[in-house]
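Thread: "does anyone have the structure for this chain?"

Original post by V.I.:
We have the sequence but no experimental structure in hand. Need at least a predicted one for the grant figures.
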Amino acid sequence: MTLKKFNFNVLGKHNFSRYGLIETHRGNIQTPAFMPVGTKATVKGVFIDDIIKTGSEIILSNTYHLMLRPGVDRIESIGGLHKFMNCPIPILTDSGGFQVMSLSKLNKVDREYGAIFNSHIDGKKFTLSPEESIRIQKGLNSDILMVMDECPKKNTNHSIIEKSTELSTYWALRSKKAFGENPQKALFGIVQGGLFKDLRIKSLNELIKIQFDGYAIGGLAVGETQTEMYDVLDYLKDHMPEDKPRYLMGVGTPSDILGAVKRGIDMFDCVMPTRSGRTGLAFTWNGRINIRNSKYKNDNNPLDPNCTNFNLNKYTKNYLNHLFNTNEMLGSMILTLHNINFYQELMKSIRENIKNGTFDDFFDLFFNKL
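Reply from O.Q.:
Generated one for you, tokens below.
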């Protein structure tokens, strides 16, 4: 049987916002899409079947962490990450480039060798080159692979960011060569350049020359303001290829997503809904709720009366407040599932409003509320 090729089509637009469809042999992904983060082959505290019931059509996993534990050979031996974690929907794997930044005290960067790490678990030294990153992602058998890049911390020094951006472009070319040809899978390039317009445009243009199946925007969600992030997206929105998916990495809050969709972004991932759920912060259509707050002790209303999926409203704020303040794991599980469900309800509403030509009204109604 011939497997379906990776494909993307823009189905409609409203100003710069757009909705479309990514086709993969494991299933289709409606865009704009939000990818729950399953760092270590699990979205913490939630069964994959329930993730799918929220409307999630793709998840993200982490190359660096899976390389350390359980190791790519162990996952590859049973046919890849989908079989390992019983996940039937598409999976995107990042390259490990973000950990070059977030774990910078444990590694050094070499232009030719890549990132030379000391494991944060046991101190063991290993090297993650562009070629090794692609080899690992192929072993994981993910559907969308990311090029190895260097994700710099926020920095106002143009020469430092320029040097880092040139390194990412060089690693992107090596990643593309290591990826080779596989029409059932996709390889995305990652645009870097910090907050500098000239470097962002140059990075994008160099990646377009190499030719990728999609283009991600990296190096954001690293300490910049929302306005600074939007400025970068405004620099790029007229230059991004129309016929390729656009992925804003590691973003973000509901308002971040709304503003990015307004600037033409198609794909998002972020740990915020799951991490917040584990610590007692709920996202709702009426704004954020810190369920640990004492004012909810006698509140017998549901968390969000607008949420109907899973019948999550059978749990009152009173009960959830009790679960969190007694450190019961069920509280984290309920809120994590609730938050993922809310994010998917948000994405569905975004898509519907773009289709109906009402996205600007939807944006104005909810941007400052969520």
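V.I.: this helps a lot. The two ends are 46 Å apart (CA to CA).
O.Q.: and The chain has a mean pLDDT of 95.
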